[in-house]
Amino acid sequence: MKKYFITAISTDSGKTLVSAILANALQADYWKPVQAGVETDSLWMRRMLHSGHSMIHPEAYALKLAASPHAAAKAEGIEIDLSQIQLPETNGNDLIIEGAGGVLVPLNDADVVADLIPQFDAEVILVSNNYLGSINHTLLTAQELKRRNIKVKGIIFNGPANEETERIILKHTGYTMLLHVYPEKEITIAVINAYAVKLFENWYE
Predict the structure, then answer these.
(1) Where are the domains of the chain?
(2) Residue 130: helix, strand or coil by DSSP?
(3) What does the alpha-carbon distance between residue 129 and residue 80 come to, in Å, rounded to a whole number?
(4) Whole-model pTM?
(5) HSE-up (13 A, CA, CB side) for residue 191
């Protein structure tokens, strides 16, 4: 079983869409260990993945407040405990693990999202959405992953094409560009399927 941890340079960067594309392409299971907000990503994934190959595993922590996980947990009078976040059984399927926000989003007063990655022995796929300032945010994220000796499978760009932004990010990180997800009028199962096929153009084991 291979485990891929989907993280991003900020909130709302497209992690869930990328997770759906990967789960579809790899016929992998999906799991979001920590969810903050009642409109859960797992529910959306259930609507988008109808192949029958992918299981959607329940969250270890399902918090109601749409906020940083540490704040959402505090609002419910609990504290997120990393030792209570255990990998689900996948019956041998690969597992797509979606993080909350970016790598330094706090889970409690001591731990951040990046602390989960080695616990799962997972390989990172970084989502970088193109906007003014995304170069800085992407390179800072890459620097933190390198500092922690976390293995990165590659990067997926999300949003309008920006050749110079993507070039400089790839140059400085050395990452493989796995895919570019462009703006779509509507995200449908057909759109996800099309990107899942395209993913294999740059997916090397």
Answers:
(1) 3-199
(2) coil
(3) 28
(4) 0.95
(5) 13
> Are the C-beta atoms of 128 and 155 separated by less than 8 Å?
yes
Q: What is the pLDDT of residues 149-185, one digit of tens each?
A: 999 999 999 999 999 999 999 999 999 999 999 999 9
CA distances from 91 to 1, 43, 47, 94 (A): 9, 21, 22, 9
Go through 15-45 and write b for each residue having 16 or more CB atoms within 10 A of its CB, e for each that does not. Answer: bbbbbbbbbbbbebbbbbbbbbeeebbbebb
- pLDDT for res 51: 60
Determine contact, residues 129/10, Cβ cutoff 8 Å: yes
Distances (CA, A) of 33 to 12, 59, 80, 177: 17, 5, 11, 26
Catalytic residues: 32
CA angle, corner 159, sides to 153 and 162, nearest 5? 90
- Topology at the third CATH level for domain 3-199: Rossmann fold (3.40.50)
Q: How far apart are CA 121 and CA 142, in angstroms?
A: 18
The DSSP code for 175 is -
